[in-house]
Amino acid sequence: MSDQSTPLRRFWAEFRENKVAVVALVVMVLMGLLALFASVVSPQNPYDLANLSLMDSRRPPGFVGSGGYTHLLGTDPQGRDLLSAIFYGLRISIQIGLAAGFVSLTIGTFLGILAAYLGGRIETLIMRMVDLQLSFPAILLALVIVAMLGQGKAQLIGALVAAQYAYFARTAYGAAKAERGKDYIEAAVATPLSTRLVMLRHLLPNCTPPLIVVATVQIANSISLEATLSFLGLGLPVTEPSLGMLISNGFPYMMSGRYWISVYPGVALIILIVAINIVGDQVRDQFNPRLRR
Amino acid sequence: MTDPVLSVRDLRTHFFTRAGVVKAVDGVSFDLAAGEILGLVGESGSGKTVTGFSILGLIDAPGRIVEGSVMLNGTELTSLPEAQLRARRGRDISMVFQDPIATLNPMLTIGQQMRLAINAHEKLGRRAAEARAAELLTQVGIPSAEARLRSYPHEFSGGMRQRVAIAIALLHRPSVIVADEPTTALDVSIQAQILYQMRDLAAQTGTALIWISHDLAVVSSLATRLAVMYAGRIVEQGPTATLLRDPRHPYTAGLIASLPATSKPGEPLAQIPGTTPSLLSLPPGCPFAPRCARQTPACTEEPALTIEADRGWRCFHPVGQMHEEPA
Amino acid sequence: MTAFVKIDGVSRVFGPNLTTGEKIAAKLGARVETRSVHAVSDVSLEVRKGETLGLVGESGCGKSTLGRLIAGILPPSSGRVTIDGVPVMTHGVKATTRVQTVFQDPFASLDPRMKVGDTVAEGPITHGLTTRADAASYVAEWFRKVGLDPVWADRYPHQFSGGQRQRIAIARALAMKPDVLICDEPVASLDVSIQAQIINLFLELTRDLNLTTVFISHDLSVVRHVSDRVAVMYLGRIVELGPVAEVFGTPAHPYTDALIGSVPKLVLDGDELVRFETIKGEVPSPLSPPAGCFFHPRCALATPECSRDMPLMRPVAGRAEADTRAVACHHSEQLVPG
């Protein structure tokens, strides 16, 4: 009868002890806020062609352009302010990462729990399909699907979901299979409660810890996968550059000393992904009963 | 009384956790003579297992022995460096755990594991080592021991695995074996066989046993002396028969009275009210006071040890003295 | 007395759960276990209204499986269970709320992510025993009956001790207003001083609510204390059945006799404080039970007949009917001459 606090509060108390994870969380939130308020914090709207001047293209950091303000990180080949482009690029990257992450989380979790709970032929069918898909590299799968569906946000998200739902399905299946055998599920079945109720109110909430961990990692993966696709020119249209496309845009100029066009978006991408992964690692450690003190 | 082989004095093992200091063992003292079987009885969280682990120096962070002494054959164990402690573990003192599958290596045959255990402390040829191993397996009641040396742990039943663990503990004829609930996971018929054999083995070899259990009936069938633990302390100890027939501490008396075997079928059992206390928030004084029918304001002080002949207890208001009826 | 719960020739077979790969491997001659386990074989039992039937035996004897079959958690492979004439399961799905279960481990049987009040209320709301609006007072009433403070309904299971959790689990089962309660080792994982509290609560509630109970335990002293009649199981079969005092006092089956003998008992007034005897050998693998009587390899009374013919349940010597006292042994007359 010692502990009166909610599980969430205890979780946060433990999370707070890892300073690196707290810094990563702050960075993550900060980048999220920058992305959310990109239009407010950016000196320029990089998507508004009227704002752009080719005169300002490929200028180094610190250059004062025709707009009258300093381009802190320089400009890209289209004359966009790189700092603004990164903020807007972050927005797109995070948007796509989150959207793809949540859709694959939903689909994957549903399939995984269904397979674990119902068993039998449905289990075999779903899990063999998942296994088959997991044996292909995600990037290959995404490439093929984007090539088939064509360019655009929805298509890109679709490709990412198709490439990633299997990870969630596997995780949800593993967790649900372990929970399925526990007495509290048996107690719910014995009451009797309907299958739908047992799955939604008992099985699902108890499968969330590993799913949250996979979700953080997979959101980071979606972001880098999207960056890869955009870098290869299969992502979003050139008018709405994500971080991957910004890197790709600067790539031809890398060797001519104009490093900033590729490097700064790259750094932003790395910081974001590392921050998400550190937070994900800490969450995973806290959920791992073997590492608990 | 002859010189004790093991003497534990004022042992305190505390765990420094996130939530606070858990005083798992808080001032435990007892002596163990050669060939004696001490039953260490207590409920979960009473500190009986931690006491056993502390004696062998097996306490890991965040736990630590903060005070007290453990003397084995005249050597102080608590101040011994890990390397020297390891040299004694398995040779002078060994342990049997509740779950034998955790202590046996699934990849090695029983014979290989027993040879390794022998060679850890003395050089013995393969043939001689196997002969010793087979002899011990026979002693603990494993039929066709020589053939079973080539079996893997998974080929044994739970009861047989526990016998193997006991045989390994006996390999070097240690002075003391600490057995932590070794029969709890086993069926009653197997448990009876093992208890029976342990009693014989202790008598034959002169090995002293500390038998840790939550089951009063099990330990009392085996032990010559009993020590009852509550909230990290030994609240009462004495010869088994005396202690069971005429308990002094209200907790011991309550435990005995609450056993279904001691009351009429269908009648309510004499129950101890309340729950076992959290070691993080113990009341001052006697830890049993909040659940005790005999508590008075005096109980907010820590009761001192009362010694009478060959027994002792920690209580201001002991049961059964001055010829009153046990509560 | 008429039967209230009727268990009619119930069996449960667990086949090996083989994957496709294992099936192929087995076909090709690999050593894959393809035998099935008869966890419960052809058990017929009757439980009378308001009585407590104890079910004892060692691990793997099928007592828990039998409990789950009666509770409608597992569908039987053959045979059927009825309560007051109504089947517990139809088409492999539990069809009644009249039987509820209390599980062994209260740390596992409560959903760790649900407030305990919601856990207790969930079933009654689903089955219309209370409404969502009245749930709080309904739960409070049951909390009081099992000796818990109703304000604790908002807490999570981890905030309770083992004994308190078991009270919550009992409240959950009883809040469904069952006629029959299956208790599967309800005190086995509790501390000794707490066991007595839960046993007392159980005795009080079964009497007050006139519950019919099946009490499963490996602890003979607990079963003896709470039961009216007792059934002894060995390797999936019932070997002896009868009033608890008679079965434990004068066992008619050598296994019952040996089981009672191997339990360490406190005999506080005898010469010897504690007495126990041992049964030789171990329980055989349920994958390949011996021919004839399953107990004969360990039995002191075994004759060639025992390794040939499976003994059937029959009235114990001197009894007119099998339902007063029955035993499955060829030689029970040597133990109870009648």
UniProtKB/TrEMBL annotation, chain A:
Origin superkingdom: Bacteria
GO BP, sorted A to Z: transmembrane transport
Membrane-crossing segments per the record: 20-41, 92-118, 130-150, 259-280
Annotated keywords: Cell membrane, Membrane, Transmembrane, Transmembrane helix, Transport
Subcellular location: Cell membrane
Database matches in Gene3D superfamilies: MetI-like
Membrane topology: Multi-pass membrane protein
Residue ranges occupied by any ABC transmembrane type-1 domain in the UniProt entry: 90-280
Keyword Membrane: yes
InterPro entries: BP-dependent_transpt_permease (IPR050366), MetI-like (IPR000515), MetI-like_sf (IPR035906), OppC_N (IPR025966)
Entry keyword Transmembrane helix: yes
One GO CC term on file: plasma membrane
Family to which the UniProt record says this protein belongs: Belongs to the binding-protein-dependent transport system permease family.
Protein name stated in the entry: ABC transporter permease
Organism of origin: Aliishimia ponticola
Automatic annotation (TrEMBL), chain B:
Location (main, coarse): membrane
Coiled coil (residue ranges): none
One GO CC term, this protein: plasma membrane
SUPFAM superfamilies linked: P-loop containing nucleoside triphosphate hydrolases
Bilayer topology: Peripheral membrane protein
A Pfam short name: oligo_HPY
GO molecular function: ATP binding; ATP hydrolysis activity
Assigned keywords, A-Z: ATP-binding, Cell membrane, Membrane, Nucleotide-binding, Transport
Entries under InterPro entries matching the protein: AAA+_ATPase, ABC_Ni/Peptide_Import, ABC_transporter-like_ATP-bd, ABC_transporter-like_CS, Oligopep_ABC_C, P-loop_NTPase
Intracellular or extracellular location(s): Cell inner membrane
Similarity field: Belongs to the ABC transporter superfamily.
Protein name: ABC transporter ATP-binding protein
Lineage: Bacteria, Pseudomonadati, Pseudomonadota, Alphaproteobacteria, Rhodobacterales
Automatic annotation (TrEMBL), chain C:
Major localization class: membrane
Top-level taxonomic group: Bacteria
Compartments, as annotated in UniProt: Cell inner membrane
Pfam families linked: ABC_tran, oligo_HPY
GO CC, one annotated term: plasma membrane
Alphabetized UniProt keyword annotations: ATP-binding, Cell inner membrane, Cell membrane, Hydrolase, Membrane, Nucleotide-binding, Repeat, Translocase, Transport
SUPFAM superfamilies from the UniProt entry: P-loop containing nucleoside triphosphate hydrolases (SSF52540)
GO MF terms, alphabetically ordered: ATP binding; ATP hydrolysis activity
One of the GO BP terms on file: transmembrane transport
Membrane topology reported for the UniProt record: Peripheral membrane protein
Reactions the enzyme catalyzes: glutathione(out) + ATP + H2O = glutathione(in) + ADP + phosphate + H(+)
The protein's Enzyme Commission number: 7.4.2.10
Domain (ABC transporter) ranges: 5-260
Assembly information from the UniProt record: The complex is composed of two ATP-binding proteins (GsiA), two transmembrane proteins (GsiC and GsiD) and a solute-binding protein (GsiB).
Record family assignment: Belongs to the ABC transporter superfamily. Glutathione importer (TC 3.A.1.5.11) family.
NCBIfam families: oligo_HPY
Function: Part of the ABC transporter complex GsiABCD involved in glutathione import. Responsible for energy coupling to the transport system.
Protein name: Glutathione import ATP-binding protein GsiA
Organism of derivation: Aliishimia ponticola
